[in-house]
Amino acid sequence: MMVLMPKAKLGTKSQRRSGSSATSKSTVRRAVAGTATVNKSAARRPPQSLALTVGKTSQALPVLHGTLSVIISARNEEETLLRLLKQVARLKPTEIIVVLNGCRDSSFERARLSRQAIVVHCPDSAGHDVGRAIGAKLSRGDILLFLDGDMVIPAPQLASFAAAVDSGVDVALNDLDSLLPPFGFSDDVIRSKLFLNFVLGRSDLGVSSMTAVPHALSRHALESIGYRELMVPPKAQAISILNKLRVEKTRLVNVIKHNRLRPANTGVGNPVEQLIVGDHAEALLTVLSQRVTSNFLHAESLQEQRRQLALWRNGL
């Protein structure tokens, strides 16, 4: 890994795994060990207000007691990255880590315009969620807020996730339940999220998942889950629940509306959908592997979960 200190005036997702999860882990090892180029500004960031001006009103942001690391994964996001970075800066984070994952546009130049950003440049795509693992490995904060570079989310909405973790939550998730279609019209991704949470005994989470951004982790959660496991978000979520971490829904951020459409994430059975469903299968394998010590998979428990799922489905 090369560390370059830019001039003071500059502060400046491809399918994750082509094979097994072991391949993706070695990819992260290579990315963190040597193939990534890191840029960090030596300039001290200017004072920042705790208020976000929206139109003619000003919305105060919560003051955090813990330090905040914001991790942004981006792939060809030159149109949105700088605007997102401006919103993130309003949170007064200790650090902003931007992982550029196989970018072919001007995302690198845009990211360097942020005087605070640490830019991790992977010229070749490391994979869909690998950027989160890389950013988490490099982070120093008490609170880790994960974002995607294609969505410009206002600072007050982002602040809710950081504040939840600051108040004691270990895993703060995006609450997308109100956007759900009827069960009969749900796709495989929605059903996979619902089923995993049911199996884990957390039907209250609905479709809330570490697959979706924004979400935030405590440093304790990261140490409990392991940064490598963030490459498979549903597996990381399963581990957090199995380890009895405090996992909660925080608020709704409509990322469905803002999600950038690409060939890989549109159409029935698209590559991203297949990847996410496969990730949930891997998460379920993790749950099954702990069936001896967990209480989730006793026959009585499974029967009750199936009954509750049927009641929920038939009630739609």
TrEMBL record:
Family membership:
Belongs to the glycosyltransferase 2 family. CrtQ subfamily.
* Pathway named in the protein's UniProt entry: Carotenoid biosynthesis; staphyloxanthin biosynthesis; staphyloxanthin from farnesyl diphosphate: step 4/5
Transferase among the record's keywords? yes
What this protein is reported to do is described as: Catalyzes the glycosylation of 4,4'-diaponeurosporenoate, i.e. the esterification of glucose at the C1'' position with the carboxyl group of 4,4'-diaponeurosporenic acid, to form glycosyl-4,4'-diaponeurosporenoate. This is a step in the biosynthesis of staphyloxanthin, an orange pigment present in most staphylococci strains.
Whose protein is this, by species?
A: Paenibacillus monticola
* Pfam families to which the protein is assigned, alphabetical: Glycos_transf_2 (PF00535)
Instruction: Output this protein's name.
Output: 4,4'-diaponeurosporenoate glycosyltransferase
At the top level, the lineage of the source is Bacteria
* Assigned GO CC terms: plasma membrane
Q: Does Membrane appear among the keywords?
A: yes
Q: Which residue intervals are annotated with compositional bias (Polar residues) in the record?
A: 17-26
What Gene Ontology molecular-function terms does this entry list?
glycosyltransferase activity
Q: Where in the cell is it found?
A: Cell membrane
